[in-house]
Design a protein that fits this description.
Blueprint (H helix, E strand, L loop, with lengths): L2 H9 L5 E8 L2 E12 L3 E6 L2 E6 L3 E6 L16
Antiparallel strand pairs: 1-2, 1-5, 2-3, 3-4
Organism: Cryobacterium cheniae
InterPro entries: SH3_Rv0428c
Protein name: Ferrous iron transport protein A
């Protein structure tokens, strides 16, 4: 666990977009999204795939990230 990363998550305002790297079996994984809840032992991040609950003890890195890019304009079909 990175104490600094866990402290960052614990002190970050809810609604902030963050990336959190956590230890999993066989390596690490990242959760990118909006911080929705923080407890003494964990945090909840709202990702594109839904809510993810992470243990503070498993966090190895975390930081604030900018908003996602705007959606691309749709491609127009080529005229014949």
């Amino acid at each position: 666990m990175s104490l600094a990363a866990a402290q960052f998550v614990s002190s970050t305002a809810l609604g902030t977009r963050i990336v959190v790297r956590t230890r999993i079996e066989g390596g690490v994984t990242d959760a990118v999204g909006y911080l929705r809840a923080v407890t003494e032992t964990g945090c909840t991040v709202e990702t594109k795939r839904g809510l993810v609950t992470l243990a503070l003890a498993d966090i190895v890195a975390a930081k604030q990230v900018p908003p996602p890019p705007a959606p691309r304009a749709p491609r127009h079909p080529l005229a014949d």
